[in-house]
């Protein structure tokens, strides 16, 4: 257990550096590095004894109960700001521990971009290759212009996810540090789970009208569902996953699409196969096979044709449950898989990353014995940038 008395000595000589060092030690602890600290090594009551100040001096263990009972009030001689600041760092570390759920593959893969406004747009561009044009140009002639100014993909409204963690009178009196940290970890887990759920819903095409784009051939914004069998693009087909030929069929589906304003098919710079848990072993068997066999009477063995394509398998435990929750039958959800360039197709537009802020409110203290409240939150929304490189394959 870290003694608050030792931390206070550092705080007294350099308060700002003290807080920075604690934050760094907690970060190192989260990463398992030498010199790191874990949230469980702190005691909230011990911290209150040394970091709630009366006339600029530590409250002391004997006065903790008096302060927690509300018989000391915030004034020019009593301050709990240092206690709140150091406890905020400990609680944040616990929230972050919970937030790092191992089974959130989409949260780790989808690229994050910073939101700049409520109307978030990512510019798209079309090379001027339609109608037989090329990038070649003659001497004294302007270079072909890339149509970027009026082309974009747009996100749906950003959402917020969060919860609060209260440090109550009882928390300090009975030194319920463990319960507070458990609650903080649980909050982190739930925020991470909610973010992964919404990413899964977008990637699986469960959000209606999630594609908002304006391309070279559009006179105004076009809104669409992610997966279409006809229309602006074709990226859905009946294609049960059984062997390498099914992945070949998914790859060939993209050849039916062209980038707006060009006669070129979209190019995949990375390849992912996203499957529910029911297809985990099937996907791994197909991708890891050392050879394949074709033919019936004259069987021909050859190397796995997928071996050099760099296809990354992604197993999502939420993929099945989110489809079922959206009304997809269990059999269909268990056999549906997705393929394409996940990194090119999607972004996560983030207003702010996971953060923990503290609030001290005398009204809450009087009403509910809440000494300090910590608010954990994250804000963002998935965004479809290029639907033409992401395909849905159903069992029938």
Word description of this protein:
The protein contains 14 helices and 18 strands. The chain is α+β, with helices and mostly antiparallel strands. A hairpin with a 5-residue loop joins strand 12 and strand 13. Helix 2 runs parallel beside helix 5 (81-99), helix 3 (44-51) runs antiparallel to helix 5 (81-99) and helix 8 (177-203) crosses helix 11. The longest helix is centred in the middle third of the chain and has 27 residues, at 177-203. The chain is elongated. The mean pLDDT is 91.
List the helices and strands and how they pair.
Elements: H1 4-13, H2 15-30, H3 44-51, E1 53-54, E2 57-58, H4 64-68, E3 78-79, H5 81-99, H6 105-109, E4 111-114, E5 121-123, E6 152-154, E7 159-168, H7 169-173, H8 177-203, E8 211-214, E9 222-224, E10 236-238, H9 244-253, E11 271-275, H10 280-288, E12 291-294, E13 300-303, E14 311-315, H11 317-325, H12 330-335, E15 337-340, H13 342-345, E16 346-359, H14 362-368, E17 370-384, E18 390-394
Parallel strand pairs: 4-16, 10-18, 11-14
Antiparallel strand pairs: 1-2, 1-3, 5-6, 6-8, 7-17, 8-9, 11-15, 12-13, 15-18, 16-17
Task: Label this structure with key terms.
single chain, 396 residues, alpha+beta, 5-stranded mixed sheet, 4-stranded mixed sheet, elongated
Shape: elongated
Beta-strand residue fraction:
15-25%
Q: Count of DSSP E strands?
A: 18
**Overall pLDDT score:** 91
**For the report, how would you describe the main beta sheet?**
5 strands, mixed
Intertermini distance:
59 Å
Structural class: alpha+beta
Order of strands across the biggest sheet? 10-18-15-11-14
Oligomeric state of this protein: single chain
SS element count, helices = 14
Low-confidence stretches: none
Q: What gyration radius follows from the Cα positions, in whole Å?
A: 28 Å
Helix proportion: 25-40%
């Amino acid at each position: 257990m870290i003694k608050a008395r030792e931390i206070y000595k550092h705080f007294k000589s350099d308060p700002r550096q003290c807080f920075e060092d604690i934050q760094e030690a907690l970060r190192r602890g989260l990463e398992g590095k030498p010199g790191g600290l874990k949230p469980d090594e702190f005691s909230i009551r011990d911290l209150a004894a040394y970091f709630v100040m009366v006339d600029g001096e530590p409250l002391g263990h004997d006065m903790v109960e008096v302060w927690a009972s509300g018989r000391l009030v915030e004034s020019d001689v009593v301050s709990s700001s240092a206690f709140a600041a150091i406890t905020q760092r400990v609680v944040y570390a616990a929230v972050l521990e919970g937030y790092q759920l191992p089974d959130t593959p989409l949260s780790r893969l989808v690229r994050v971009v910073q939101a700049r406004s409520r109307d978030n747009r990512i510019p798209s561009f079309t090379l001027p290759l339609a109608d037989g044009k090329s990038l070649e140009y003659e001497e004294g002639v302007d270079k072909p212009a890339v149509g970027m100014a009026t082309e974009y993909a747009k996100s749906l409204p950003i959402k917020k996810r969060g919860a609060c963690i209260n440090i109550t009178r009882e928390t300090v009196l009975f030194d319920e540090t463990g319960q507070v940290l458990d609650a903080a970890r649980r909050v982190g887990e739930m925020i991470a789970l909610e973010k992964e759920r919404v990413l899964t819903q977008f990637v699986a095409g469960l959000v209606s009208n999630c594609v908002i784009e304006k391309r070279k051939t559009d006179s105004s914004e076009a809104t669409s569902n992610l997966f279409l069998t006809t229309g602006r693009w074709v990226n859905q087909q009946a294609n049960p996953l059984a062997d390498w030929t099914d992945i070949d069929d998914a790859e060939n589906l993209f050849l039916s699409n062209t980038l707006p304003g060009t006669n070129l098919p979209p190019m995949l710079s990375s390849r992912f196969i996203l499957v529910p848990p029911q297809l985990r072993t099937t996907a791994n068997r197909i991708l890891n096979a050392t050879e394949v066999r074709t033919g019936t009477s004259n069987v021909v063995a050859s190397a796995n044709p997928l071996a050099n394509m760099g296809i990354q398998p992604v197993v999502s435990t939420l993929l099945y449950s989110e489809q079922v929750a959206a009304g997809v039958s269990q059999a269909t959800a268990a056999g549906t898989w997705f393929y394409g360039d996940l990194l090119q197709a999607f972004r996560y537009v983030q207003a702010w990353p996971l953060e923990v802020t503290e609030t001290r409110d005398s009204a809450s203290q009087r009403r509910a014995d809440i000494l300090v409240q910590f608010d954990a939150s994250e804000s963002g929304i998935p965004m479809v940038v290029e639907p033409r490189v992401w395909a849905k394959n159903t069992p029938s």
